[in-house]
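May I ask for an example protein's residues together with how it folds?

___
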Amino acid sequence: TWKWVVGPMFLYLCERLVRFWRSQQKVVITKVVIHPFKTIELQMMKKGFKMEVGQYIFVKCPAVSKLEWHPFTLTSAPEEDYFSIHVRIVGDWTEGLFNACGCDKQEFQEAWKLPKIAVDGPFGTASEDVFHYETVMLVGAGIGVTPFASVLKSVWYKYCHDATNLKLKKIYFYWLCRDTHAFEWFADLLQSLEAQMQERNNADFLSYNIYLTGWDETQATHFVVHHEEEKDVITGLKQKTLYGRPNWENEFKTIAGKHPGSRIGVFLCGPEGLADTLNKQSISNSEADPRGVHFIFNKENF
């Protein structure tokens, strides 16, 4: 038995040693931003840290727990001089981090009072391949929208710097959310992108649809009254919020009709059930002819 055990144990010990070495590297919290509904954004810097879009890191805060490591998706872009994560306060550890950062206090928090943070990573995900396609579908469910914050930021930086060499020409973005609690911080990013794209006369570069899946008809009716207003009353975006769930078959057929003969990347960060649906639609809407349209499915489950 020991012959079979010694190899994996050696690799495990090597991984633990690498994580310990990484955890000793200094990480500086440069900014803590409090978003509505107990969501905080930590902006950090670390010497030699390099990331790609959609990657994630493991975070340890010794002030909260000396042993616990928790994974968080990076919400910053590689072009920015810091890396950031968004943390929703939903448990004991995140509550402890919230308090350790002084977010429960009204007065301004001095930088030297912020807790020490250990970071391991970054680690790759399927979202890194988004720039390999001319057309992509990005589907985020709930907090699964976080990797696409990094993607959309990076796309915008690349677009502003050298749009002619950017292979990606069209983004279809879908965000499915049960309630409005997660809208605040991400809607700000979409508003900024929407305004900047219009300034450059390329508003069609990004098409997005936001779906509220947890609302019933009586709740939705109140906002339908304001549907004719210029901006959506929930998100402040020009694109109106939709209610219920998208008809994926219609969405895939519409996109396939607009981009004949293309390889379209489908990227999901969401639950397994939605992954099965999108995978089936990607297969059924791809043509047998190699010159026809093909949907390439990539998933990241939580």
